[in-house]
Amino acid sequence: MKRRDLVLGLGGAAGAALAVGGLMPRAGRAEAPAAGDATAVSSAPSPPWPVGAAKGDIAVAERSWDRAMSGAIPGLGRSDALVIIQDGRLVLERYGRDHGPATRHVSWSMAKSFTQALVGAAVLQGRIDPDRPLTTVAHPDPKLTLRSLLTLTDGLAWDEAAYSVVDSDATKMLYGPGRLNGAAYAGGRSLAYPPGTHWRYSTGSFQLAAAELQALIFPTARDPRERRAAMSGWMRESLFAPLGMDTAVAEFDPSGGLYGGSLIYASARDYARFGELYRLDGIWGGKRLLPEGWVKFARTPTIKPDYGAGFWLEAKAGADGKPLGLMGGAGPMDAYSAEGHSGQVVLVVPSKKLVLVRLGLTEGANGFKFIGDWLVPILAALPDMA
How confident is the prediction for the chain on average, in pLDDT? Predict the structure, then answer.
């Protein structure tokens, strides 16, 4: 199942009710989860973005937002936030009902992109080797590595393609048999394919990547509270605090394992900071937070032409000859994005020096097509700047 389908980004604290049929968790306004399951960086407002006049026709984005809010595009669903950063300056910010600059919004599967960043931060610090065989799997293989997990080419048996939430391995991991320790559930799977030979979508792979990261950088942390505290403190110091992501919240399972594939909470402004870090090639405020080449790794396709490492890509054509990606070949081909269930998007467009954040509740199998079609004219009205 791709990120645009029903159960892709399912996640939640232990004990949450199983979502069945149409009873999906609400992918909208989200404050911090229950104490003990998540760690907030700060409740203080984030530092303000520099504000500037837009280059190009920003009125197109304003009209597009108004149309979305009026219900003129039924397939788009509910829009909660639109933030556009152009060359490091905030040029447009709009919010829906009950949302504002400080409102935390659930990431769903955009968390996978954050996990890719966290692995990169650990590589930069010399704490891990992404090509070292995994230690947290039941069936080790020399080619089964963090790199293979981040590119979804690990080959571990996993089925997230089922539209029914009851049948999805993601739901079973987060709400069923694997709810107490998601990484143990994912890591116990056998190899269905040799690593590096097959791509398939898996929230379990990123849960396992987060667990491997925790095990390598905090090998003596055993107690769940100790594991949560160590990991959340390191995330704050290595990523959130340098970026000024003061609204960011990370959620953990009962074993103290980070939900690496599904649950980050932050404001739209702070999601934009994350996107801007990638636009700037992993450098923020003159300091490198991600290794040289790590952003290129994120946006370089492997087996699947529209997927890199934790990020979705625009691609000229798939196996059937049709363009792939969020905008289906109609938008900038250098664009890449973090994407999450129900229409969460952090879009990076290097050629336009642009980061765009869209948050909301867009349902249905074609939801991301509506979002992509909605974004195309907005981007076309903004000039190339690279």
Answer: 88
Q: Phi/psi of residue 358, each to 5°? A: -125, 125
Q: Output the pLDDT for position 46.
A: 67
Cβ contact 351:384 at 8 Å: yes
* Residue 113 φ then ψ, to 5°: -65, -35
CB contact at 8 A, 248 and 271 = no
Separation of alpha carbons 27 and 23, rounded Å: 11
| Whole-number Å distance between alpha carbons of 104 and 101 | 9
Distance CA 19, CA 136 (A): 28
**Residue type for position 265:** Y
The ranges assigned to domains in the chain are 42-380
* pLDDT, tens digit (0-9, with 9 covering 90-100), for 161-220: 765 678 899 989 988 999 999 999 999 999 999 999 999 999 999 999 999 999 999 999
Question: What is residue 105's three-state secondary structure?
Answer: strand
Alpha helix (H) residue ranges in the chain: 59-70, 111-124, 146-150, 169-175, 182-187, 203-217, 224-235, 241-243, 268-279, 294-298, 367-380
Q: Which fold has domain 42-380?
A: Beta-lactamase (3.40.710)
Mean local confidence (pLDDT), 99-103: 95
Asked whether 144 and 150 are in contact (CB, 8 A), the reply is no
What does DSSP assign to residue 41?
A: S
- CB of 227 within 8 A of CB of 214? yes
CA–centroid distance for 81 within its chain: 16
Give the C-alpha separation, 10 to 19, whole Å: 9
* Phi (first) and psi of residue 96, to 5 degrees: -85, -175
Tell me phi and psi for residue 375, to 5 degrees. -80, -30
Place of tokens 């790199």: 147
Query: What integer pLDDT is reported at residue 162 of this predicted model?
Result: 63
The residue among 121 and 24 whose pLDDT is bigger is 121
Q: Measure the CA–CA gap between 291 and 294, rounded to whole angstroms.
A: 5
- Largest distance between two CA atoms of the chain: 55
Please write the tens of the pLDDT for every residue from 339-368: 999 999 999 999 999 999 999 999 988 899
